[in-house]
Amino acid sequence: MSRLQQMRQQMHNGNIDAYVVMRPENGRYLSGFSGGETTLYITLEKALLLTDFRYIEQAKAQAPEFEIIDAGQDHFTTLSEVGQQAQRVGFEGDFITYVDFGKFKDGFSQAELISLPDLVSHLRSIKDSSEIELIRQAVKIADMAFDEALKTIEIGQTEEEIGLNLEFSMRRAGASGGSFDFIVASGIRSAMPHGTASSKRVQSGEFLTMDFGAIYQGYCSDITRTVFIGDPEDKHRQVYDTVLAAQRAGIQAVAPGRTGKEVDAVARAMIEKAGYGDYFGHGLGHSVGLAIHEGPNLNKREERLLEPGMVITVEPGIYIPNWGGVRIEDIVLVTENGCEVLTKAPKEFIIFE
Ligand SMILES: [Mn+2]
């Protein structure tokens, strides 16, 4: 079944006549069209792709299942014309702006508008073989960049320089860009889980956390490694070993039929047992795909069951204010029996003299 057919199945089950897609990743997922400025209008019979003059040829080539419409800059006028017959119209309530929703409502005054943000994201959560192949490639590119970083990191470099080198490595290897603003955080900054690269210079006696990833043909990777510069104290080793053990236990726990909550609890328990429970304030992981953060997640609240084909990060951390922090992150693919770790970069305690 094509993705469009699967979508229609979902719409049929939800008793929806039409569905409007505006989120770029959802549009790309369903149609194949990778350009910007697009709206999909899908019914059980019709599949329309609205875009403007700049993208018509590209859309025709990339989205053969869709009828391509040049809708100029105002997609809502065209939508209201093509949507005259629809009674129950689904849309992405988590994406449309308040202003656009007003226009949407005016154009579909006779219809019932139903916010169904999960319709496409549920399809997207199970990756098909072509998607898994692209994610493998994006992961491989990030692994290579980490390998190169290990050869170039020096005391006195700024976090920004380290981040830039990571990005150069990945672009050279075929990435179209980074999958988010890289986190390069050293010393006490490594206690900030989302400390983006700054002009701080890396010094001896510090942790250095690098959290980065590539986009390859639309698909994201995400990896975190923490290394040590100089001569570590016992506590540095102890914190690192605790995070690594929790990360390995989390990976062991990933399997179909488990909830994200159960997997999170396994890794969290190890960090709590070591006495660092208060210093692990975020969830264990998130899915990745066309977007860097997708559902389902691994966290204290996630009730969804893991299924084969999901691709998810496992990334525990310990962050001690005014001291430093450690996070280790791999991407895993949920399989029939457990999971396959896609990330291959080394994760033993690495020390730069
Ligand atoms: Mn992540």
UniProtKB/TrEMBL annotation:
GO MF: aminopeptidase activity; metal ion binding; metalloexopeptidase activity
Pfam families per record: Creatinase_N, Peptidase_M24
Keyword Lipid biosynthesis: no
Keyword terms: Aminopeptidase, Hydrolase, Metal-binding, Protease
Chain ranges of the Creatinase N-terminal domain: 3-126
Residue ranges occupied by any Peptidase M24 domain in the UniProt entry: 133-336
Top-level lineage group: Bacteria
Annotated signal peptide: none
PANTHER family assigned: AMINOPEPTIDASE, AMINOPEPTIDASE YPDF
Family: Belongs to the peptidase M24B family.
Name by which UniProt lists this protein: Xaa-Pro aminopeptidase
